[in-house]
UniProtKB/TrEMBL annotation:
Top-level taxon of the source organism: Bacteria
Keyword match Protein transport: no
UniProt domain B12-binding: residue ranges: 535-668
Name of the featured protein: Protein meaA
CDD domains documented for this protein: MM_CoA_mut_B12_BD
PROSITE patterns membership: B12_BINDING
Phylogenetic classification of the source organism: Bacteria, Bacillati, Actinomycetota, Actinomycetes, Micromonosporales
Pfam families: B12-binding, MM_CoA_mutase
InterPro entries with a match to the protein in the record: Acid_CoA_mut_C, Cbl-dep_enz_cat, Cobalamin-bd, Cobalamin-bd_sf, MeMalonylCoA_mutase_a/b_cat, MMCoA_mutase_a_cat
Species of origin: Micromonospora acroterricola
Coiled-coil segments: none
Keyword terms, alphabetized: Cobalamin, Cobalt, Isomerase, Metal-binding
Length: 668
């Protein structure tokens, strides 16, 4: 029990949580300047966003990196980039979160090397590498290696930090993207805890950590969660997380100290729930979502980062990030929230809701464990299918109006928003020259280093990967030799292989009770008959490195329900692969999904490829976070339709696809 002042307040005000903004773009130097500005405004921790080539283990001059460099984060291709990223920032005195998963070991090695160059004691460095690869197979798509090899890398990082960086959180179990992919609160808790169990089992079974130190491992495992707008339910979810984590770590791993079993988490509130329509409404959504992880003192987040109001429109500007930081500061410093003990202790409503989530999540966790654990549940497609089905049900509720989204499916009448009156200026613009500069930079880096040292370091990395040795020493040798991100990942690809995760479409059923689907199905059948084909064929393509596949999968599910034959090969395809599939499968329409902002590079590459293959007649549509000006450019280049987040009615989109096919074939 907390000692309370006579008024019921705490005797001393709580310290605020760590306040971050998720930041990174264009180049290491530009991001360093952004970090400095944000810290000067009162931000108390860094949260580094890396671009997609870095996240997926490619250098800026790789074919798959085209159009993606510096878009959704900062490119870090080698030690020189990491030096520039943290230039003048004292790493030993800062709390740094790095959202990096498949190459987490590599980025941590770069970070630690820069820290040592600053004469920082690694034992004093505090921060987090996300390093949760499982959710990448399920929702975000920035995986590289198969699940078992990825867990091996995670376990190696945990063992290394336990020895060398005891204040570092080596893994941040991330349920954030599970919610974006459709997870209910029960699924989010159950599936995230299944991932945590897999990580802890891998560490325990690796033989690198003595049994008596498992409590120290547990104490450094953190979580990264999503908070939606249903903030009462989100409070209950976080309390349920804490209850189950305490039980699992006590009963499965024998951790006896309550302090070590405490559930520790950071949060970014739900970016996917932000809307392109009436974007000013996103401000109140962000505030409500922040309350879900701060109101309950017993389940309060250790660190909070908020999205910006315009993330459904494009890349936020520094001013937009400042607005989100100020929201946190107003709550922490102007309100009286931190002066009181837990506001929900003894609440019958909250207790019942927590118990309901705990019971359901335990069922989900046990189901995954019965399948053989989270790796087996990924490889069989069970988890992905469950998420696709849940997201389809969520979409059905929104389309039917059962779930209200203000400004989207209700209260749509609106005045013009002054926030977006500036058009494209309402979001950050990435200079196209950034990519060329990064590609030139990595080529110069390769030319200036000791080639023999690089070859020796990569040879050691491959040799160690073929054994059970901890890969951190070989990785650190690669850093010092000047190996690049793409070379490090490429060496491990040679040993571990690459992986294509299940799409989950087999378990998806999206139309539900939509009364409009029957009419669209009739149009699909009639159009196929008029074209003399058995069924209309739709290719859904994800060009480039954008792994956010939720929207593409929902379109694929709904199109299939409407009678289309759907060709969907998953994420991370080159333009050439998409064109080849379109020609070989003789499809009637190509639909491209791009959410990373690389549409002006990725889409024309596919159009050019189709023309070169003699299929300039094949219609192409595009969906993604695409500003109005860019949409005009794409249409001028030959795209038949451009869909953005405001186009939420999936059956209506499928009906538009039929219209596109009919017009392309001169049908009335």
């Amino acid at each position: 029990m907390d000692e309370k002042a006579p008024s019921g307040r705490l005797p001393e005000r709580d310290r605020p949580w760590v306040m971050r903004t998720y930041a990174g773009h264009s180049s290491a130097a530009a991001t360093n300047a952004l970090f400095r500005r944000n810290l000067a405004k009162g931000q108390t921790g860094l949260s580094v966003a890396f671009d997609l080539p870095t996240q997926t283990g490619y250098d800026p001059d790789h074919e798959l990196a085209s159009g993606e460099v510096g878009r959704v984060g900062v490119p870090v291709a080698h030690l020189g980039d990491m030096r520039a990223l943290f230039d003048g920032l004292p790493l030993a005195d800062m709390n740094t979160s790095m959202t990096i998963n498949a190459p987490a070991m590599w980025l941590l090695a770069l970070y630690g090397t820069v820290g040592l160059e600053q004469n920082a004691e690694l034992a004093r460095c505090s921060g987090t590498t996300q390093n949760d690869i499982i959710k990448e197979y399920l929702s975000r798509g920035t995986y590289i290696f198969p699940p078992a090899a990825s867990l091996r890398l995670t376990a190696d990082v945990v063992a290394y930090t336990l020895r060398e960086m005891p204040r570092w959180n080596p893994v941040n179990i991330c349920s954030y993207h599970l919610q974006e992919a459709g997870a209910t609160p029960v699924q989010e808790v159950g599936f995230a805890l299944a991932t945590a169990v897999a990580v802890l089992d891998a560490v325990r079974d690796s033989g690198q950590v003595p049994a008596e130190r498992m409590g120290d491992v547990v104490q450094r495992i953190s979580f990264f969660v999503n908070a939606g707008v249903r903030f009462v339910e989100e409070i209950a979810k976080m309390r349920a997380f804490g209850v189950l984590w305490d039980r699992i770590t006590r009963d499965r791993y024998g951790v006896t100290e309550a302090k070590q079993r405490r559930f520790r988490y950071g949060v970014q509130v739900n970016s996917l729930g932000l809307t392109e329509a009436q974007p000013e409404n996103n401000i109140q959504r962000i505030v409500l979502e922040m309350l879900g992880v701060t109101l309950s003192r017993d389940a309060r987040a250790r660190a909070v980062q908020l999205p910006a109001w315009n993330e459904a429109l494009g890349l936020p500007r520094p001013w937009d990030q400042q607005w989100s930081l100020r929201m946190q500061q107003v709550l922490a410093y102007e309100s009286d929230l931190l002066e009181y003990p837990d506001l929900f202790a003894g609440s019958h409503v909250m207790t019942a809701l927590v118990d309901e989530i705990v019971t359901g999540a335990r069922v989900e966790l046990d189901k995954v464990l019965e399948l053989g654990g989270v790796v087996a549940a990924v490889e069989t497609g069970y988890l992905k299918s469950a998420l696709v089905a849940s997201l389809a049900e969520r979409r059905r509720r929104m389309e039917s109006g059962a779930d209200v989204v203000v400004g989207v499916n209700r209260f749509v009448e609106t005045e013009p928003s002054p926030l977006t009156a500036a058009g494209a200026e309402a979001v950050e613009q990435v200079d196209p020259a950034v990519e060329a500069a990064a590609a030139d930079g990595v080529r110069r880096w390769r030319a200036d280093r000791d080639g023999a040292a690089v070859d020796a370091a990569l040879a050691r990395l491959r040799a160690d990967a073929a054994t059970t040795a901890n890969l951190m020493p070989a990785t650190l040798e690669c850093v010092r030799a000047g190996v690049t991100t793409g070379e490090w990942a490429g060496a491990l690809r040679q040993v571990f292989g690459e992986y294509r995760a299940p799409t989950g479409l087999a378990g998806g059923a999206g139309s539900g009770g939509d009364p409009g689907i029957a009419a669209v199905r009739e149009r699909v059948t009639a159009t196929a008959r008029e074209l003399g084909s058995g069924r209309l064929r739709l290719l859904v393509g994800k060009p480039g490195l954008d792994g956010h596949s939720n929207g593409a999968e929902q379109i694929a599910v709904r199109a299939r329900d409407a009678g289309f034959e759907v060709v969907y090969q998953g994420i991370r395809l080159t333009a050439g692969q998409i064109v080849a599939a379109a020609v070989e499968e003789d499809v009637d329409l190509v639909g491209l999904s791009v959410l990373s902002g690389s549409h002006l590079a990725a889409v024309p590459a596919v159009l050019d490829g189709l023309r070169a293959a003699g299929r300039a007649d094949l219609p192409v549509v595009v969906g993604g976070i695409i500003p109005a000006g860019d949409a005009d450019t794409l249409r001028a280049a030959g795209v038949a339709r451009v869909f953005t987040p405001k186009d939420f009615a999936l059956t209506g989109i499928i009906d538009d696809l039929v219209t596109v096919i009919r017009r392309a074939n001169d049908l009335p």
